[in-house]
Input
Amino acid sequence: MEMELSTYFRFLLALIFVLALIGILSWIARRYGVLRGTVRPTPGKRRLEVVEITPIDSKRRLVLLRRDHTEHLILMSPTNELVVETGIIPPPRSDNPPNNIATKGISE
Output
């Protein structure tokens, strides 16, 4: 009985070791961009951004991409992709909250 218990314990330790090794290697692969398509640009220099994704039906979706301050609308399906519109100028982004009449009187 003692022999069987030690065998199970060694099996459990080996399983924990292998799972930890897989986790560490996957973290390293993501961190350093070893996996295909995971090139990470330096912070603040991203040129490509997914602005919005809208599902059309169960298989198709519209994707709005922004590249170098220009937006592109793409229809994606499991079998192909179609560029619907390109060269869209995005609306100006307003990071300031809208002026509220109620708060104007308080702050002035």
